[in-house]
Every structure is written in C-alpha cells, then in structure tokens.
UniProtKB/TrEMBL annotation:
Coiled coil: none annotated. This is ABC transporter ATP-binding protein. Keywords: ATP-binding, Nucleotide-binding, Transport. Belongs to the ABC transporter superfamily. It holds the Pfam family ABC_tran. Residues 6-235 form the ABC transporter domain. The keyword Iron-sulfur does not apply. SMART domains: AAA. It comes from Mucilaginibacter aquariorum. InterPro entries: AAA+_ATPase, ABC_transporter-like_ATP-bd, P-loop_NTPase.
Length: 312
C-alpha cells in the first residue's frame, strides 16, 4: 500500500482548559499546494505548529512519509520545512551566514551544506544577495530567505503560515509565484485567511472553523460549492413574478423594489444570457445584472451550519 506523504489522525489540542482544535483528519498523497483556510483564531497556526513538531498535541497522531512524530520526531522533522508567521530571521547575519547556520541546525554535514545553500538560494531567487545583511533586504526578499531556510534540507513537505502577510502587492505576486514553483516537487501546506489567495494557488482546500474541519476537498469542488446562486436584476419594465419564475433555471424570484428583483437559480451558467434574451424579446428594458457571490464569512457560516446539521 502506498504511504501518505502527510497523514493527520484525530488531532486535537487544548491550551489549558480550551480546545483550540478538535478531531482534525487529513491525508495528502501527492505533491502540490493544499490550502488551510480559516478566520482568525480558527486553529490554523495550532494545526501547523503541531504538524511541524513545534507543539506537542494533546491527542491524535501526525505521520510524515509514514513516520509518526511521536515515535521518531528527529526523523519526521528531517522531512518537513516550516516558515512560521513571523520568519525566524537573524537580521545581523548575511543571507549566506544565515542559511549555512540553518543547514547546520538541520544536521547537514559541512560538505553538504554549501551545495544545499546554493541550491536553496537559486530556487528562491536570492543568489545575488548572498553577502547582503538580512536587515538590508526588502520584506519580499526577507520572505524569500525565510522560504529558503525552510527548504534548505530538501524536505518533501513545506508548511507556510500566512506567507504573504504584510507584503506589498508586487511582493505578494512574486512570493506566490515562488510558492507555486516550489510545490512542483513537494507538498506545500499553506495557511491563509484570504479566500482569493487560496483559490489562486491551491489544488486542495481544507477549511477550519472553531477548531473543526468544515470543508475538505479539491479546489474545483469548493468553487462549485460557492458558485453564485443568485443575481440582482434591474428591469425598467418589471414583468409579473410568475413570468420570471417561468424562465428555465430560475428557482425563485423576490421582488425587492418596483424595478429590482433577486433571482435564485440552479447551477446553470447560461442563465444571465437567457435573462438578457427574454428581456429583449419581451421589452423588460434590462438595466443591470449583478451576480451575488458569497463572502468568506458567509461561506464559513454556511459550512459550519452544514456541519452541525450533519452531526445532530
Ligand atoms: N498559546 C496559547 N495559549 C492559549 N490559547 C491559545 C494559544 N495559542 C492560540 N490559542 C487559542 O487557540 C485558538 C486557535 O488559535 P490559532 O492561533 O491556532 O488560530 P489561527 O487560525 O492561526 O488564527 P490567526 O489567523 O489569528 O493566526 C484561538 O482561540 C486562540 O486564542
């Protein structure tokens, strides 16, 4: 049977009296980016810290390449790289000094270190800053150095806790491109509370809310789940509601004002075009159509609701 690259089994963690995460299960069997999405305080950092061996869980097991963290933490840690929310950088070291130091912390031999640092710098696009003090780098380049320290020992699993937080828009684009490239030959677990970022980068998505998984599936399945199901239609000559509800694909029409109606529809993407055609044919004088997308908060609410309905 093929070993999972990452397997999390019934993971729970409690800080003093309060459970921060409860019964998290996850299995990753192929390379690519898995997004961990959750609002503030949902339990992302707790999950990631346990996954990297920085925090000892209260209950459950974490396996990296089949190695149980509890049984052999040293060997499991060799397979994993971690960039925490605040990158662990030494500002008064140069990029080379810092990465050599990190390779040493990863128990790489003297001979091995030089090649590994060179490779990590090239992969992260910082080779030209080898002798620059870290404090003299921009935020985006510091983040690249943070990613380089996390991959210097060539781990097959990389965990990034909100890696684009605090960067300017150009730096965000560059760091995202770097993460995409790095995920070609490893698993990257990436946390964010920005839905659009996770949608852009990730192959799979896991959503946590109040310490519990509320959604876990492919990005495609998620996008289907959150596809808009309603639209606002502004018509100068509003027809009877029954006439609107008779349009194929329209489930329900709610009249909001004399000229504004909300139409609920099933998953059909051609519905807007149908409305335009009907409006032209019947002289409804269409002014505007707006698809109504769910906000992240609404999605969390729906998913949490869905989960508690399933439990009860
Ligand atoms: N060291 C700690 N001691 C006590 N409670 C903690 C500690 N760290 C986190 N918590 C609590 O555990 C819960 C989960 O926190 P966690 O930091 O894992 O969430 P998060 O999803 O990473 O949030 P954020 O996006 O704000 O970083 C929160 O209720 C938080 O207040």
């Amino acid at each position: 049977m093929q070993k999972s690259i990452v397997k999390i089994e019934n993971l729970s963690h409690k800080y003093s009296a309060n459970w921060a995460i409860r019964d998290i299960n996850l299995e990753i069997n192929s390379y690519g980016i898995v997004g961990l999405l959750g609002s503030n305080g949902a339990g992302k950092s707790t999950t990631m810290n346990i996954l990297c061996g920085s925090l000892n869980q209260t209950e459950g097991n974490v396996y990296i390449n089949g190695i149980n963290f509890r049984d052999d933490p040293m060997r499991a840690k060799r397979e994993i790289g971690f960039l925490p929310q605040s990158p662990p950088l030494y500002m008064d070291l140069t990029v080379d000094e810092y990465l050599m130091y990190c390779a040493g912390l990863r128990h790489m031999s003297g001979n091995e270190r030089k090649g590994a640092v060179k490779e990590a710098k090239e992969r992260c696009g910082i080779a030209h800053f080898s002798n620059r003090l870290i404090k003299n780098l921009s935020g985006g380049y510091r983040q690249r150095v943070g990613i380089a320290q996390a991959i210097v020992h060539r781990p097959k699993v990389l965990v990034l806790d909100e890696p684009t937080n605090g960067l300017d828009p150009n730096q965000i684009i560059e760091v995202r491109a770097l993460i995409k490239d790095i995920a070609r030959d490893r698993v990257v677990i990436f946390s964010s509370h920005i839905l659009s970022e996770v949608q852009l980068l990730c192959r799979d998505i896991m959503m946590i809310e109040n310490g519990r998984i509320v959604f876990e599936d492919s990005m495609d399945a998620f996008n289907n789940y959150i596809a808009p199901h309603s639209m606002l239609v502004h018509l100068n000559n509003m027809p009877a509601i029954m006439e609107l509800e008779a349009i194929q694909g329209v489930m329900k029409a709610d009249l909001l004002t004399e000229k504004l109606v909300r139409l609920f529809f099933s998953g059909d993407s051609g519905i807007a075009e149908t409305i335009v055609n009907e409006s032209v044919n019947k002289g409804w004088r269409l002014q505007e159509i707006t698809l109504e997308k769910n906000s992240v908060e609404e999605i969390f609410k729906q998913l949490s609701q869905h989960q508690s309905n399933n439990i009860s």
